Amino acid sequence: MKLKKALLIVDVQNDFCPGGALAVPEGDRVVPVLNRYIGFFSRKKLPIFASRDWHPQDTKHFKQFGGLWPKHCVQNTRGAGFHPGLKLPKETIILSKGMDPDKDSYSAFQAFDSNGVEFLQLLKVLGIEELFVAGLATDYCVKSSVLDGLKSGLKVNLLIDAIKGVNMRPSDSEDAIKEMVTKGARKITFSKLSKRR
Q1: Which of 49, 107, 134, 188 lies at a 20 to 30 A Cα distance from 179?
Q2: Are 168 and 146 in contact (CB under 8 A)?
Q3: Mean pLDDT of successive 10-residue segments in the chain (197 residues)?
Q4: Cβ proximity of 135 and 82 under 8 Å
Q5: Is 178 a catalytic residue?
């Protein structure tokens, strides 16, 4: 794999895993697969990004303030922490989103690193042209991040074996995957990636 590629892990946080405030069914199942991808990208010395919801206590994203969702991933709480089984290397670039109480911010492209630099700007600085995206949830933050990546002119691969959806309607994840592929994302699995590159 030439440089110019990066892994984006979307929102694999305690509140989105079983037992969390807004659990994605079987959300923790992505963790072992993600760890294989992390190992692969680490060995190739390619950048790894991990996005997280990092909400203030009061935000219109939450039901009690007019939003869709129960309170989740509040800054500096256990629920906002990454799943303990996720083996993020120390050089992982953490992207925080959802800090603005007036915005929903589903996409990692609305996130910032610890210096306040936007994700797209970081990708440009690093010369990244191709993203490999996985995490939670297929039908919300993964979908938004993939579609924004495509809109930004990036080549985007959807790691189909390392995503799980909320599925408020039973077909939501399936519909989200169709939409991402129709817009230009390419589906890939770990076995295909490790063989091909």
Answers
A1: 49
A2: no
A3: 84 97 96 98 96 94 87 96 98 96 92 97 96 98 98 98 96 98 98 81
A4: no
A5: no
